[in-house]
């Protein structure tokens, strides 16, 4: 069911059932073909594939994986996804037929036959445990329902069988399971985010009012089951007061985390404390110098060596100021976007802690403020008012002058922390990765502009 949506991502589907012993094919005149769908850009692939399978062929299915290697996709004809039908004995709809896997490839044209062979080869690797990925194996969803039932039935929940799969990846899963009394969420992570389970469990113990309640842990899958937080995602809210409440709740969470540094680091929160940031300034900017030197586009102009040196000095001065202010180390969230915050009537809940860190205060709010600029919130001076809401809980700990000085350098340090929080800037292949190299050049230019603004504000204050 291909859509004419401009910029859509085209997928061929290998839909299996009966432990991958049968594959769904379409009739096209005297020919057989794989189902095809088009997914709008910036949509969750798994969720859209499932919806299209239901709409086009009346299938209740879930997604196993997107084929990793596809000669067809390299020819610009789209990608291939492997799905599993929930029902193993239903009759096929008009124009479709369930074909034994041994005959499927021989019924198709050359390129689609190759896709089927590659899909089944990869699928068999997961089945034989030669390739890590529990969520690429047929039957995993039935096992998840069985396990979830064991966790929630003693709590008074009863599963209805309804679900919403948001992620399709062999080692990652995010799925909403319906119960008669609401919903629960199952999430599992693999590398490089395997640590999220440990950190999430620690946060649920340390700050139970600020994260979803954990209902069960699936150790073999590195996953956990959590209660659905009541409220709406901040990303869906255009009224400014909800954003202000989220900013204030963030400050209160950070304040509650003071003195918990050892527990957070032991739970594998990223260490972005000021001394750690300071140590990364010179090696990071040396790497950025290499990227600037190989930029082949004249605009925007690459930063000169002198400008990178000025940025290095500005970053070191900003870090020195934050250390001088003796700000406490607190819990931070490097992915503090409005899709990770549930704003309820009585509390705000913060989700998805793979990018959780220990850092200075005022870091996380900078990311939320950046998202506010791009939101549909219509509010005069929204950024300043958001910061005021965030600062209110901190006024009991620091003088207005302390807060002003920390806030002045925070946009610069926050941008740098975002750049060095992961290891991709150290990658030996960075020079060959044009998209990633361009991203880091752009981020470094942003830091340079922030550094210039800090210097100008400082000069005005001195005047």
Task: Write a structural description.
The protein has 463 residues and is an alpha+beta fold. The protein folds into 3 domains: 9-132, Nucleoside Triphosphate Pyrophosphohydrolase (Alpha-Beta Complex); 140-227, 2-Layer Sandwich (Phosphorylase Kinase, domain 1), CATH 3.30.200; 232-462, Aminoglycoside 3'-phosphotransferase, Chain: A, domain 2, CATH 3.90.1200. The chain contains 14 helices and 18 strands. It has helices spanning 45-57, 71-74, 101-104, 110-127, 140-152, 196-206, 240-256, 261-266, 274-293, 305-324, 363-374, 382-391, 400-420, 434-462, and strands at 9-17, 22-28, 31-33, 36-39, 61-66, 79-85, 96-100, 159-165, 173-179, 182-188, 214-218, 223-227, 232-233, 270-271, 330-333, 341-343, 348-350, 356-359. The longest helix has 29 residues, at 434-462. The model is unreliable at 1-5 and 70-76 (pLDDT under 50).
SSE inventory with pairings:
Blueprint: E1 9-17, E2 22-28, E3 31-33, E4 36-39, H1 45-57, E5 61-66, H2 71-74, E6 79-85, E7 96-100, H3 101-104, H4 110-127, H5 140-152, E8 159-165, E9 173-179, E10 182-188, H6 196-206, E11 214-218, E12 223-227, E13 232-233, H7 240-256, H8 261-266, E14 270-271, H9 274-293, H10 305-324, E15 330-333, E16 341-343, E17 348-350, E18 356-359, H11 363-374, H12 382-391, H13 400-420, H14 434-462
Parallel strand pairs: 1-6, 14-18
Antiparallel strand pairs: 1-2, 1-4, 2-3, 2-7, 5-6, 8-9, 9-10, 10-12, 11-12, 13-16, 15-18, 16-17
Helix pairs in contact: 7-11, 7-12, 9-10, 9-14, 10-13, 10-14, 11-12, 11-13, 13-14
């Amino acid at each position: 069911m291909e859509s004419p949506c401009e910029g859509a991502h085209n997928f061929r589907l290998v839909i299996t059932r009966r432990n991958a012993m049968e594959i769904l094919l379409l009739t096209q005149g005297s020919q057989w073909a794989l189902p095809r769908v088009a997914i709008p850009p910036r949509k969750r692939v798994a969720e859209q594939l499932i919806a299209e399978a239901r709409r086009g062929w009346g299938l209740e299915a879930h997604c196993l994986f997107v084929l990793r290697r596809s000669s067809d996709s390299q020819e610009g004809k789209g990608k291939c996804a492997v799905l599993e039908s929930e029902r193993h004995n239903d009759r096929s709809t008009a124009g479709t037929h369930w074909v034994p896997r041994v005959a499927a490839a021989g019924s198709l044209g050359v390129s689609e036959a190759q896709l089927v062979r590659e899909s089944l080869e990869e699928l068999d690797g997961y089945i034989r445990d030669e390739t890590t990925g529990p969520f690429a194996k047929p039957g995993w969803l039935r096992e998840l329902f069985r396990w979830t039932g064991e966790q929630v039935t003693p709590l008074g929940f009863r599963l209805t069988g309804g679900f919403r799969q948001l992620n399709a990846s062999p080692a990652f899963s995010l799925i909403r399971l319906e119960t008669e009394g609401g919903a629960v969420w199952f999430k599992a992570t693999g590398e490089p985010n395997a640590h999220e389970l440990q950190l999430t469990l620690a946060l649920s113990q340390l700050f139970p009012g600020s994260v979803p309640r954990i209902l069960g842990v699936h150790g073999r899958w590195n996953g956990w089951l959590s209660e659905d937080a009541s409220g709406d995602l901040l990303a869906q809210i255009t009224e400014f007061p909800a954003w202000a409440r989220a900013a204030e709740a963030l400050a209160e969470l950070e304040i509650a985390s003071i003195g918990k540094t050892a527990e957070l680091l032991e739970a594998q929160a990223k260490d972005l404390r000021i001394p750690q940031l300071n140590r990364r300034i010179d090696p990071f900017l040396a790497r950025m110098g290499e990227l600037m030197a190989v930029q082949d586009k004249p605009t925007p102009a690459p930063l000169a060596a002198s400008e990178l040196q000025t940025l290095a000095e500005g970053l070191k001065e900003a870090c020195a100021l934050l250390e001088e202010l003796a700000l406490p180390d607190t819990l931070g969230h490097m992915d503090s976007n409005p899709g990770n915050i549930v704003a309820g009537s009585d509390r705000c809940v913060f989700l998805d802690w793979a990018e959780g860190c220990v850092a200075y205060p005022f870091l996380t709010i900078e990311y939320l403020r950046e998202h506010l600029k791009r939101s549909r919130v219509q509010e005069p001076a929204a950024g300043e008012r958001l910061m005021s809401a965030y600062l209110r809980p901190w006024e009991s700990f620091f003088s207005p002058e302390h807060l002003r000085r920390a806030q002045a350098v925070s946009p610069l340090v926050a941008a740098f922390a975002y750049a060095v929080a992961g290891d991709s800037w150290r990658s030996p292949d960075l020079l060959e990765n044009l998209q990633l190299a361009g991203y880091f050049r752009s981020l470094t230019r942003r830091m340079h502009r922030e550094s210039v603004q800090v210097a100008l504000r400082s000069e005005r204050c001195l005047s």
